[in-house]
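Bumping my old thread because nobody answered last time. Still need a sequence for this structure:
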């Protein structure tokens, strides 16, 4: 699964948290590109197998630290 994290700014660093219910199952810090590949192996480690929904919290990192998070649940239609 490839997630586009672009914010429309010229330069950006992003942190993301992936959830199973209310629990963070994976945190990725310092993403310097606007994409993150969440592999089948990562899904198996975090959830025990392929998933159909993924709850995320995305933070843009600026001079003052983490910004307000974008919280959303993604529907996964197919795997890469």
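Sorry it took so long. Here it is:
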């Amino acid at each position: 699964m490839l997630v586009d994290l672009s914010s429309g700014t010229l330069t950006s660093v992003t942190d993301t948290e992936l959830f199973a219910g209310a629990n963070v199952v994976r945190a990725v810090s310092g993403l310097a590109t606007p994409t993150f590949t969440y592999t089948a192996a990562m899904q198996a480690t975090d959830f025990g197998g392929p998933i159909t929904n993924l709850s995320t919290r995305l933070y843009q990192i600026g001079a003052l630290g983490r910004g307000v998070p974008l919280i959303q649940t993604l529907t996964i239609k197919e795997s890469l």
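The chain has a mean pLDDT of 84. Let me know if any region looks off to you.
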